[in-house]
Amino acid sequence: MSSEKILIVDDEKQICTLIKSFLEKEQYQTYTAYDAENALRICDEIEPELIILDVMLPDISGVDLCLELRRKTQCPILFLSCKSEEIDKIIALSAGGDDYITKPFQSGELIARVKAHLRRNRILASPPKKARNYNYEGLYVDLDAHQVFLDNAEVNLTPKEFDILAILIENPKRVFSMDQLFEMVWKIDSLEGDSRTIMVYISNIRKKIEPEKRGIKYIINVRGVGYKFNNSLKRT
What we know:
Blueprint (H helix, E strand, L loop, with lengths): L4 E5 L3 H13 L3 E5 L2 H11 L3 E5 L7 H8 L7 E5 L4 H9 L4 E4 L4 H19 L7 E4 L2 E4 L4 E4 L2 E3 L3 H12 L7 H9 L7 H16 L9 E4 L3 E4 L7
Parallel strand pairs: 1-2, 1-3, 3-4, 4-5
Antiparallel strand pairs: 6-7, 7-8, 8-9, 10-11
Helix pairs in contact: 6-8, 7-8
């Protein structure tokens, strides 16, 4: 069963049962409340990922309940209402609602909106992707931006040259054979003579990032085996 919990708040028990059946077919965990008091209590207990909220409730309005819920949770709140006037939608959304569905509604539309809001919420809640950049004694490589800098001056590598350097710099303790590098970059099996291609590309990369006057070797040739990134260099 999905770990995503959905709270349904509607004083019409038949509506709650109907929505509950729709959602459970999609493997969501569902909880129901028929008034504001129980909705607030259940919200505290289960911490739902989404709330479906009727505008008309017996104790307070759904809009007022939404304002209370927003003090407890930032999960998506989808309003249900028989009212279709624009002003009603504006009031509900201004109170903190994320969507507004008018009754009667189709099950497909409801499920599609629920999935869309949950998907967006998962994206927002996911941790930011860790930046992939490396800085070794004057050589700066940004893998996401496909940029290389040597002593703050940009170095223009071809796409294949960049891919080779990226493989080496991401795995500084590993020695790659020329056949392995060819297959990883070109995405095809290595044939006789392809190792020569890698030698040419490595030579070109070195010309661009290893000028003799600097005396720093970033790419090491392991005789009889292949190439590796110089992991003796200090990463800054």
